[in-house]
Write the structure tokens for this entry.
Amino acid sequence: MTLWRIDTPAQTMVLGSDGGMACCHYWGAPLPADTDLAALVAAGTGGITGGMLDALPPLSLIPEARRSFPGQLGLVAFQNGLPLEPDWRFDGVDDADVLTLRHTAPGLRLDVTIRAMDHGLIGLSARLTSDAPLTLHHLALALPVPAHLSELTELTGRWTREFQPVTSTLDHGARLRDARTGRSGHEHPPHLWLTTPGATNTSGEAVALHYGWSGGHRMLVEALPEGRRQIQLGHCSGSERAPGTVFETAEIWLARGDAGLNSVAIPFQRAIRDALPPARQPPPGALQRVGGDLFPPRRGRAGQYRGTRRRPGGRTLRAGRRLVRAAR
């Protein structure tokens, strides 16, 4: 088996392939540089008990019907009116700047790209190409959920009551969200948290996933019968209306921390700030404190910054003499 690892200060991901579709064998706390990855993968191999298949189907990056995967599949497509069930074979790797794992099947190619990002984040995306047009119903990347992260927190809400957290326990069955409104919105933003029981803003282990797409998305968290759990993120099912030859997922951003929800929020905030165009970057001294409140500074005639202050009774005055607004 060929193995690769992606390391950031906050997390490590170990991937491997035995000649077929690559799998994520480990995703969690940073591993020492001298970790025996082969032993790590062997330790995570599930056992065989009564009433099971002779071999445990792998939880690959794109769970496959051809390998009798017992859960939700990562690729659902049709060609010439028939279900497409490719026999993926590993075809090589590009690891110059990012790690790109190439897979091929007759008439098909699937590239999975994994990259270590600034601030401890990891990004994943997939690209499917076909020699002949096919109809894509669903394409999503899948990752294993660490066994000790047993609580799922999502955000929901409505107008005037946005972004309300909802926490559920991952014990059996599947949690599926197929947002088909064509946008993200207050009711189903494309991100979620997996935490240890009782995690708070400042304590407990947490991982956060964000699907970088402002349209409809599909999120699945599933507990498999033999105890494994998977999480999938992709475009909403059925969003590709016309046959095509090139399909791509958006990039999934992963964060991990040991100090509660804040430890996974900070990397996202810093990454987004870094990505802002120069015109949107807050300038130095963008806010100044006046009377215990923060206000955008204003320039006076002589070029000095002049703030605002509030008069008892709710009237807002310029720091000079002119009245700006009276709030009743």
Summary: The chain has two domains: 2-45+54-278, 284-326. The domain at 2-45+54-278 is CATH 2.70.98.60 (Beta-galactosidase; Chain A, domain 5). Helices lie at 37-43, 262-275. Residues 22 and 233 are 17 Å apart (CA to CA).
